[in-house]
Specification:
This protein is α/β, with parallel strands linked by helices and 389 residues long. The chain is built from 17 helices and 12 strands.
């Protein structure tokens, strides 16, 4: 029964999913930044390029604000951010093309899981066109106009098939896999001790490589103290809801201060002043001038000079207010989501899905960090379980 269940088409998992927002891979970093900031709800944009071998345009990447932030954190880009934004997206795109894989709607869930376990982080699936109302058609035309450079890739639209989609699907029929769901994650051996971690007092700039890697792995960077006690995280999910000005904070703050800075409540004023002072100390004047942190919604006052680093933007008419660093796209609080080694597999699945994360930190009662459990770990267990049937 379980084998038959997983043989279902992946098109079942794509029902109702929104089409990808698209951009040509030949565009500049500034083009990608504009595309990312044009939506209060989508945190990613797909990148498309012509593939000579297949004689078609294919998706070659998935870009979010974290990619841009990590790119701008390079020292030469901090010195000249405007020049960095004019560079092609090839400066950001990962060299590993296997991270993005095209999948047909008729492909089985088995195939999707195997691709994920082989390292594919983003599955691109065509979605069938549906009849649209006049309003929906206008929205579709606006979407097509925004991505006119790659609209010739196909007559149909595409969507992302994510690890979360697969886990949700499995959870919907979790009884098929009894008794596996009731077993603890510790007994299943799916807690990974190979975590990305940084000391609370370390410079946030030293975590840039780990942040970029965690984005690729769809995990996060743990913040720990000298005793290995888990304090919090620097999450790509949270950073993806910020904007490019966070590069200034990463270049000047400690890892612990950065956690407070990117919290969805907004950066504390003392940290804002500290960022400004340290940018001056490090002679990052262009960063200070070109990437300012905007004033608070309450004050509604514009920036008084190029060197001011206030905290928020005025509310936008007719839509949710979006600050420079804290967007309406934020859907959960910034604190880390944790579980215990004795938590059951199904409990961890439900907890992760409820908080819209692909992983949970595993800690002991004394808050010492044990490791991390990911959707990929869970999928491996389900796949191995099926092989024993």
């Amino acid at each position: 029964m379980a084998v038959s269940f997983l043989a279902r088409d992946v098109s079942d998992l794509c029902l109702g999913k929104p089409p990808l927002r698209s951009l040509s891979a030949a565009a500049t970093v500034a083009d990608a930044l504009a595309a990312l900031k044009s939506s209060d709800h989508e945190t990613h944009v797909s990148l498309w390029s012509f593939c000579e071998n297949k004689n078609e345009v294919r998706c070659v990447g998935k870009l979010c604000m974290v990619d841009v932030i990590c790119y701008l954190c390079r020292e030469d880009n901090l010195l000249s951010p405007s020049k960095a934004l004019k560079e092609p997206l090839s400066s950001i795109l990962p060299k590993d093309q296997s991270l993005v894989v095209h999948l047909q709607p008729s492909s089985s869930l088995f195939e999707a899981i195997d691709l994920i376990l082989q390292g594919a982080q983003n599955l691109v699936v065509p979605i069938l066109p549906t009849k649209r109302s006049g309003v929906s058609r206008r929205k579709q035309q606006q979407h097509q106009k925004a991505s006119s450079t790659i609209n010739s890739h196909s007559s149909c639209e595409f969507c992302w098939l994510t690890q979360e989609d697969v886990i949700r699907f499995l959870l919907g029929s979790i009884g098929v896999f009894t008794p596996l769901p009731a077993l603890s994650i510790d007994s299943l051996g799916i807690i990974s001790s190979d975590v990305l971690a940084i000391d609370y007092y370390s410079p946030a700039s030293s975590a840039v490589g780990a942040i970029s890697k965690s984005l690729t792995q769809q995990t996060s960077v743990a913040i720990v103290d000298s005793d290995g006690t888990f304090i919090g995280e620097i999450s790509p999910f949270t950073l993806a809801c910020c904007d490019e000005t966070v590069a200034a904070a990463i270049a000047t703050l400690s890892a612990g201060d950065l956690m407070a800075y990117i919290d969805c409540g907004g950066p504390p004023e003392d940290l804002v002043r500290l960022v400004k002072a340290r940018l001056k100390e490090k002679n990052f004047e262009k960063m200070l001038q070109e990437f300012t942190i905007l004033s608070s919604c309450e004050s509604s006052q514009s920036t008084s000079s190029d060197e001011e680093l206030p905290t928020r933007t005025p509310a936008r008419s007719g839509r949710l207010a979006r600050s420079s660093s804290y967007s309406a796209r934020m859907v959960r609080k910034a604190e880390a989501i944790v579980c215990h080694p004795k938590s059951s597999l199904v409990a961890v699945m439900i907890q992760a899905i409820a908080h819209r994360v692909n992983y949970l930190w595993v800690i002991e009662d004394d808050c010492s960090l044990v490791g991390i459990v990911t959707f990929s770990n869970m999928l491996k267990v389900f796949r191995e379980h099926l092989e024993t049937i």
